[in-house]
Amino acid sequence: MARATALTVPRRGWAPWLTLGGLLALVVWSYHGTRVELATLVSGEAFGQIGDYVAKLFPPDLSSVALADAASGAVETFAISLVGSVLSVCIAFPLALGATSTILYRGVLYEGQSLGPGARAARLAVYGVSKTALAVLRTVPEIVWALIFVFVVGLGPFPGVLALGFHTGGVLGKLFGEVLEDVDPRPLEALQSTGASRLGIVL
Asked: Are residues 192 and 109 in the same domain?
């Protein structure tokens, strides 16, 4: 007969309770620090202000001046998106090449060839800097980049272009790097066997 084995339940200790207490303390501290007033939010005065704001939306302003402003804003938004996207590709592509290990120090390009300590350290440094730059660019939200560039270049559409380009450049660079590292090595081996240069294989 098979003997039943008793299951031992590990003791959790005080760590979960301390973590929960710390999180609650942070919530209370943030609540007081941001001066949240829930009573004001649910009061009749707040709902009255919301109602007044919604009422002012009707009837919509369809005058020629309002339509011209809306069209101008739409064109400017499209221009910011277009130029920002071009800038993001210009930022992402070189960083993606630097953040691709198969291009820098391993893979088909370096099979059978040993890199010296100095060359390998330099390539690892480029790889690390590129990876870090892409992580920072995509981690910082566009609104934060926009605030930073407003202080640098002033108000207008230009800080929006820079903010969109820098953040999207980090996102695209990560995607570009993943695509480059997932390339099928067989076509690269065929190029290398025909005597293609390293630059030609990369391109």
From this structure: yes
